[in-house]
Write a structure and sequence with these properties.
With 398 residues, the protein is α/β, with parallel strands linked by helices. It has 15 helices and 14 strands. An eight-stranded mixed β-sheet has the order 5-4-3-2-1-6-8-7, with helices on both faces. Strands 11-10-9-12-14-13 form a six-stranded mixed β-sheet, with helices on both faces. The longest helix is centred in the C-terminal third of the chain and has 25 residues.
């Protein structure tokens, strides 16, 4: 059985074709600048090791982009399937499932209606996700589509963790509450960490660190708490997002700078975080390069980032009344070994003992970076969000 995984953004579309007989990815790629001039199409045949990078005719919409993807997958020279009949089902990343869904679901008209209602909670993501589903249903009629939600894994949180101290009717009438995101990553990484621990009864903190970053407390496979909130803006400091901030600070900035709601939303989501403090870029590689030169704003941004993560780890140890392991994942969590090292070196009170050699360099695969006698284990785990989506799609359609 082959599952096509689709992650549809407002002007981009990631795809991956996975053979579920062995859970191996056989092709993947990215359509960029959909609906914008000078589109870019990148395709990787992972069986042959071939990479195709093209600048096709303008991809005016997602229907044209997906048509480009399907044609490339069937290409006589670099394709991996003879025809679309070999695609058994399509799995879609959907950012917000609200309180409707605590698990992945087969898509029908009612599901699409619910997802469109939730667009107000994720205006940058859900409309694009829904668009991808509609296009696939049109281009491949009869194929089953599955929605896999970023929010679903976090729905085991208790009200004491997900409620905001706003008037209760804001929850009952407007569904304002903490939902959490990056759920597919937190689910996969926490499961791998449990396997590495060899302990079902476990307390694990997952740090998904990338341009977007979130922390979760997972006890016995269920989320106790997570850092992102109603939207992905809350929690730790991120590439361009503020993370937690006093709401009154936003009102004050709005007034003093003459911003409307859209203006402050842009400032907090796209101009803040590492980029806001550091200045030139939100890319952690640029930040690290400038830190080596002694750039004070780069050092400040880095220190703030690590401090916020340590603060959440401490809070979640308290929330679970203990901890067995910390798992780092995501672009920064997997590759910036110094971030893992610097955070853990300030958590020695937990009984963490780093293996100096493993903690001091980049290592491939899923690895433990603590010593054998460390009371709390620390892992670097490579996330596989597309695989989680494919697994759920397979589970619901096989």
């Amino acid at each position: 059985m082959k599952v096509l995984v689709i992650n549809s953004g407002s002007s981009s579309l990631k795809f991956e074709l996975i053979d579920m007989t062995n859970e191996k990815s056989i092709a993947k790629g990215l359509c960029e600048r959909i609906g914008i001039s000078n589109p870019i199409f990148t395709y990787k045949n992972l069986v042959k090791g071939v990479v195709v990078k093209d600048r096709p005719e303008p991809m005016e919409n997602h229907k044209i982009a997906i048509d480009v993807v399907l044609k490339q997958l069937q290409d006589p020279e670099n394709g991996v399937i003879r025809n679309v009949d070999e695609i058994d089902a399509i799995g879609h990343r959907v950012v917000h499932g609200g309180e409707y869904y605590d698990d992945s679901v087969l898509v029908d008209d009612e599901v699409l209606k619910n997802l469109e209602e939730l667009s107000a909670l994720a205006p940058l993501h859900n409309p694009a996700n829904v668009m991808g589903i509609k296009v696939m249903r049109e281009l491949l009629p009869g194929k089953k589509n599955v929605a896999v939600f970023d929010t679903a894994f976090h729905q085991t949180m208790e009200p004491k963790a997900f409620m905001y101290a706003l008037p209760y009717e804001d929850y009952t009438e407007l569904k304002v509450r903490k939902y959490g995101f990056h759920g597919t990553s937190h689910k996969y990484v926490s499961e791998v960490a449990r396997e590495m621990l060899g302990k079902e009864d476990s307390k694990i903190i997952v740090c998904h660190l990338g341009n977007g970053a979130s922390i979760s407390a997972v006890q016995n496979g269920k989320v106790v708490d997570t850092s992102m909130g109603l939207t992905p803006l809350a929690g730790v400091m991120m590439g361009t997002r503020t993370g937690d901030v006093d709401p009154a600070a936003a009102f004050y900035v709005m007034e003093k700078r003459g911003l409307d709601l859209k203006g402050i939303d842009t400032r907090m989501n796209k101009q803040s975080g590492i980029k806001g403090i550091f200045g030139p870029s939100s890319d952690f590689r640029d930040l690290a390069s400038e830190m080596e030169k002694g750039n004070e704003r780069a050092i400040l941004a880095y220190d703030m980032f690590c401090y916020k993560i340590k603060s959440y780890i401490g809070a979640y140890v308290a929330a679970m009344n203990g901890i067995d392991a910390i798992a780092f994942t995501g672009g920064i969590g997997e590759n910036a070994f110094y971030v893992r090292r610097d955070i853990c070196n300030d958590l020695t009170f937990l009984g963490i003992k780093l293996d100096d050699e493993k903690a001091g360099e980049w290592l491939p695969g899923n690895v433990e970076i603590t010593t054998k006698d460390s009371k709390v284990k620390v892992y670097k785990i490579e996330t596989a969000e597309e695989l989680v989506i494919a697994r759920d799609t397979y589970r619901l359609t096989k």
